[in-house]
Amino acid sequence: MRIATLLSGGKDSLYATYISLQYGWDVLYGVAIKPKKLSWMFHTENIHLINHIAKNVGLPLIEKETDANKEDELDDLKSALKNLAIEGIVSGAIASEYQRTRIEKICHDLGIKSFTPLWHKEQGMLLKEMIEAGFRMVIVAVAAEGLGEEWLGREINKDCFDELLRIHKKYGINISGEGGEYETFVIDCPLYKKRIEIKKATKIWEKGRGYLKIEKIL
Amino acid sequence: MRIATLLSGGKDSLYATYISLQYGWDVLYGVAIKPKKLSWMFHTENIHLINHIAKNVGLPLIEKETDANKEDELDDLKSALKNLAIEGIVSGAIASEYQRTRIEKICHDLGIKSFTPLWHKEQGMLLKEMIEAGFRMVIVAVAAEGLGEEWLGREINKDCFDELLRIHKKYGINISGEGGEYETFVIDCPLYKKRIEIKKATKIWEKGRGYLKIEKIL
Question: What value does the mean pLDDT take over residues A135-159?
Answer without folding.
Answer: 95
